[in-house]
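Data deposition worksheet. Section B asks for the primary sequence of the deposited chain exactly as it was used as input, without tags or linkers unless they were present during the calculation. Section C holds the resulting structure in token form. Section D is free text for depositor observations; keep each observation to a single sentence. Incomplete worksheets are returned to the depositor.
Section A, Depositor: J.P.
Section B:
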Amino acid sequence: MIDNGNMDGLTPINAFRFVAVNMQTNSSKIIPVKGPDGNAANYSFGRIIMGIFGMDKKYYVATQGSPTGGGHLIQYDPSTQTAIDLGKPFKKGNSALDIYTLNVGTDGALYGGSFGDEGDVKTFRYDYKRFAVDASTLDNTSRFVTSVSGDSKYTYAVCGKNNWFLYAIDRETGEKRTLKSNSGSGVSIDIASHTDAPYAHSVATHFRLSGFTSTALKEYDRPMTNRMIYVPYSETDATVPQVFWNDVEKKVVYKLNNGQAGSIPVTGLQEDIYPTTGPMMYSNDKLYLVCYKQGLLGSYAKSEGFKKLGCTSMGILTMLMPPATSPDAGKIFMAGYPKGALLQYSPVQDWTVNVAGFTNTNSGFATTSSNPKQSAFFQDADASGTNGSMSLLGIKYTKSGYVAGAGNNDRITVSAGRELSMGSYRNGTVRNLYLPEFSHYEFQSMCLTKDSNYALIGAVPKNGKIERLYKYDPVTNSVVKSWDIPLWDDLYSPLSPLNNDLLVGFCGDVVYLFDLTTGQIIWKEVLHRKIYSMTVGPDNSVYINYMNSSVFNYKIIKYNFDVSDRLNPKATTKVITELDDQDNNERSKPSGMLVVPSGIAGNYDLFISGLNSLYRIKV
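Section C:
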């Protein structure tokens, strides 16, 4: 599926299209989506969110954020190579709600769930002829139907994110009952369709759903019946070719069961990738920004606008520029996934990485002589290759000239999921640190102490409520101290130093100050809305970006702290601005913030990224 290349930011203006590839004739075909009038649609359907095969052997695609509001359901028939816009199932006045999820029910029908503002939670059932949509919302507080299923009489839906509710709805009478609920965001509920019944799942227990009855299986037991799903071929069929999409060269690569391999270029594709969805930093009056897809590094300057510097094909998850007084001054270090790769880039030299030459064997990394060049693989630094970070999620440059890195390694544990890892790099050598307790934690955040001698690495237990903060010394490759912070959130929650012994951070919807000398939270404020990003300005002002009136509206506020009395710290706040995500993209959030000098003494520019656009706000 592709768009028509006509974009507003990252939102398609025209309809996307399907691509059919014929490996016998070594050719490809572009298939437009037809509108209700039978002609090729020339309007935008919004962004593709997910797709699933129905039991009618047709493929269904759900969208979000169409320019006129709401999401479309598109039907593609592989046998006739035709695609049809079935319209917007979730009407709301003159607009519509987005589609958040799709599933095939036990009865074989197609089910969908909505996404919108608080209370915008509905489901539809599509019997491959017509839609049946809920007459009223499932509750007044949820914004997402995260999973959905059904049988011949009932629809089952989970509304979640902040709190989790499992509902059963009698489609004949409209009666609704709550079958299960979990308070808070940490313990989710989901639904899977099986041939005998839909099953809900939470933690280690599955529940068989039948009308208004929910029957728990034994803990850790799974349903014995098959999933209700149409697959056009058997996954174990040896005659099915292996097929891959080469995103860089825009071609389908395949290998037949007889060993014959080939590729089919697909023409007519255009996809704009903007470096606004990853980390960013500032140096020499220029912003450096990243798009995770294709490992794109870009720059922005007021006088130049955006420039795409190049692609690494590595997922760039973190980057830094060493201080001007350091031995590595002038370099940009980039790190990420896979293999915990660390690359060095010289901005004053041409980008020489040959993206088209990347293969699965070298995982898309640069060489030791290219620009950017390969510095190290943290994952491979151990003899076993298991202690080092597979995903480097944070890197910081210390005063001693070390690049301290942290992330998660390749082991999966019951208590933590991915396992915390940390290490350091200098002069071509990586040293990884492993402690048995790391098996209980996943990486969450990283910052330097105010004196830049140590790295502070935050970690979160998968099934706990207490975060752990480690003080890591890259010189000795050891943890010299640790603290427990009585907060918990399963998303990235950054920290920044305010002074030598005081940190500011956020967790979920809480802004807080943490005293390293006492190991205590000395101040906190609950915003009652999800916080997405934070930064500390050169004047020690703290900027917070959080969800405001809806999932597409955000407020930026500034805190100034008076901590002269640690027993009674004071905070003053100022609203900087509000902004809307014009793309209405639930999948993108304002995750990047940075305050830089504006060029006028005492004035600063606040940059915000992550919303498929870059915002500059005078503060």
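Section D:
Residues 523-619 form one domain.
The chain has no helices and 52 strands.
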